[in-house]
Structures are given as C-alpha cells and as structure tokens.
Amino acid sequence: MAARPLVARQPNERLQALIQEAGCSNAGLARRVNMCGAEHGLDLRYDKTSVARWLRGQQPRGRAPAVIAEALGRKLGRTVTIDEIGMANGKNLASGVGLQFSPTVLGAIEQVCELWRSDVGRRDFLSGTSVASSALVEPSRDWLITAADAQVARSAGARVGTSDVEAVRATTEALVELDHRYGSGHVRPVVVHYLNSVVSGLLAGSYREAVGRDLFAAVARLTELAGYMAVDTGQPGLAQRYYIQALRLAQAAGDRGYGGYVLAASMSHLAASLGNPREIAQLAKAAQEGARGHVPPRAEAMFYAAEARGHALLGDARSCQVVAGRAVSRLEAADSGRESGDEPPWIRHFDQAYLSDELAHCHRDLGQAEPARRHAEEALAAHPPGRVRRRAIDLLLLATAHVQQREVEEAVTTGGRALELLGTLRSNRGAEYLDDFQQRLEPYRDEPVVREFGARMEMQAA
Questions:
Q1: Torsions phi, psi of 3, nearest 5?
Q2: Which is it for the CA torsion 98, 100, 101, 105, positive or negative?
Q3: Positive or negative: CA dihedral 98, 104, 110, 116
Q4: CB-based burial of residue 280 (10 Å sphere; 0-12 exposed, 13-18 middle, 19+ buried)?
Q5: CB–CB of 325/274 below 8 Å?
Q6: Cβ proximity of 364 and 315 under 8 Å
Q7: Higher per-residue pLDDT: 37 or 380
Q8: Which pTM does this prediction carry?
Q9: Quick check: 338 pLDDT over 80?
Q10: How far apart are CA 223 and CA 247, in angstroms?
C-alpha cells in the first residue's frame, strides 16, 4: 500500500515508544497488523521494512493507521488511538474529538477513549468550545439512518465477563445517587477518571457478542451521565461531545430505546438550556421516530414531555398542550400497569414528579403562572429528599410562578428555601436557575424583601 511522508519526514517517536512498550519487534508488529487487517477485510502485506519506514516518518494511507493502532492496542491490552501512534495526519485534530458519530465500532471505541483521555488531561479545547445546533441535530440523523452494527465481539485483550459489566452498572448507580445529592462539581472528576482508567480497558478487552452488547449499553449510560455532569459544571461544549458518543455507544449496544433517551433527555435538554427551541422539538421527534416499538410507555411519556418543552419555548401553546397531553396519557398507562411492559433501568426514574417538573417548565415559558405553580408544587410533593438538586430547581420554578403572579413575598420565601438547598450543592444548573429567578425579581428590586434576598445571595456567594 502506497505511503506518504509526514511533514518534514520527522521520525515517529510516538510509534517507537509504543512498540517498545508493547515489547514487539518490527516483524512482529507487521504480522499483527496484517492479521488485524484481515479481520476487517483488508489484504495487508506489511513486513519489518514497512514498520521501519513508518518509524522514519512515512504514513500508510486509508484505513491502515487505525488498524495499526488496534493491533498495538490488542498487544497492550488497552485502546490506542491513531493520534497516539503519530498518524493522525490532521484527521484527528483535538478540536474534533468526540464530535463524530463513527460509522464503525472500532472508530467509536477510539473516539470515546480519546474523549475521556483528553478530558482527564483537562484539554482546554474541550471546555472552551460552544455548542453548535447542527452538531446536536446531525448525529441524530446519523443514528436514525445507520444500520445496526453486525458484530461487536472482540478476541484480543483481557477477558471481559458479565461481572465486569455489572461492576460498571453498580458504579454508575452509586455515582448517580451522589450526583443527585451533592451536585456534579463534587462527582464528575471521579466519573471521568473511572471511564479513562477502567472502562477504556474493558472496551479494549476480549468479549463475546452478548457480553459486548451489554458492555456497550452500560458504558453508554455512564458516558451520558458524564455528559450531564458537564452541563451541571457549566461545560456545554464538553457535554455535547459526551452525548454524541453515548448515542453511538447505544447504537453499538443495539439499544434503540436508550439512543432515543440520549436524544430526548440529554441532547434536547442541552438545546433547551442554550435557548434553541426548534432543535429541542426536532431531537425529541427523532427519539420518538427512531425508538418506536422499542420503548415502554414511560419512555414515550418522557419523549413527548421533551417535545412539549420545545413547543413551549417557541410560544406554541396549542402544540405544547397536545404533546403534553400525550405525555400524561402514556405515563398514566405505565403507572396503571395497563401497558407497563419491560422497563429498562434508565427510564424508571421518570415518574410523576419528573413529568410535573417538565410541565412546570412548559407553563413557565408560556407565561401561564397558575398551572406552572400547580405543577411545581406537585413535583416538590413527589420528589424524595435525596433529589436535592431537582428539589432546588422546582422550588425556583415555584418561586418564579409566584413572581409571575406578583406574589413577591411568597416568591422570596420560596426562593430562600431553594437558596438553602443550593448551598449544599456544587451545581452550575442550580446557579443558572437562581440567576434567572433573581432577574425576574428585578422589577421589584426596591422592595425590602427583595433587597434582603439579594443580600443573602451575596453572603452565600462570598
């Protein structure tokens, strides 16, 4: 296969270091690359001379760099990227890490592991970028039209079994609980280090088809959680990358339902926080279309609720009412047991409290204070004490409804309760809701209770 030189034909020190780490000879690496290529339908005929040329700075064309990285990764027992072997050649620029919905399982592993590695390394390009609406919607189209992955099993690396998958699931549940109670500022670094140090090794391991699907499903869930935590720590550009990769991992798992969840519960809400209402509805509709027939009524209720949020932000009260009615109906069907079906763990949290929360947002955005107040109260009554961040947000939704009704004293009292809860959290989302509430109090800034509330906020921030 023809080769092209790297810029200035510099020796490839990255590749040299990895070959030494793997304990491979040039001939041994060539054999491994040829065998790995054959698994991907490639007729590669490299030898020790080919490897020597790579070390001098030449780079093979086409898919060969990815195969070389995979062959080395198998020998090392971990995922190796084409950037690590010095063969990115501009195609794996840091700024694009995590933004691609990869067409292959191998590419998906490479993308997500590079994202985790870059996040742990605190690369500035990850947190400093903004979110493009098209970069949220385009992966949903890829997900809708991409055929299922025919195979995910791997035969190289450390053996991965059912107990490993269960460990990832149990770790995820523990981290979710900590996040609810203390906010992502306390928990997200733990999640990212676990993904980079433990989970990346599992993905690079050896697993049967069924175990592999379950592994991808578990990793998709934890990757989505890391994305949500990026939102809660004020990093929407980073959250976008995690959500795209969670969507791709769900595809590898063969889980259309969870893919829809990522679109409706994650990407859609990210679009909402960024003020992109049209994209909210588009993403929720894509979830409904792509997961049709693969999800129980509870998930359908959540998908409809997400769409309703988009219509509300667009000021379309009629469409919001219609879609919100569908959400209520589907949740009633789930709770009554008439159509409960087999509910996966990722949707069981979506109960009446969460739906009421969503509807309170809708009515707030439509300027409908009384139903916003009613639904916020319903959410507060139903959310358990452990959902500290959610209760704080619902208190601020209720306080906002009081402002819309010009009940300033009630608003400030309720806002004070939210302020107390937020004092126990490290949550950027909570802070954003608090800032929004304070702005809505601005017309009443001269009233004593409002001045007192402002002073309390300043003391807490000090």
A1: -130, 160
A2: negative
A3: positive
A4: buried
A5: no
A6: no
A7: 380
A8: 0.79
A9: no
A10: 9
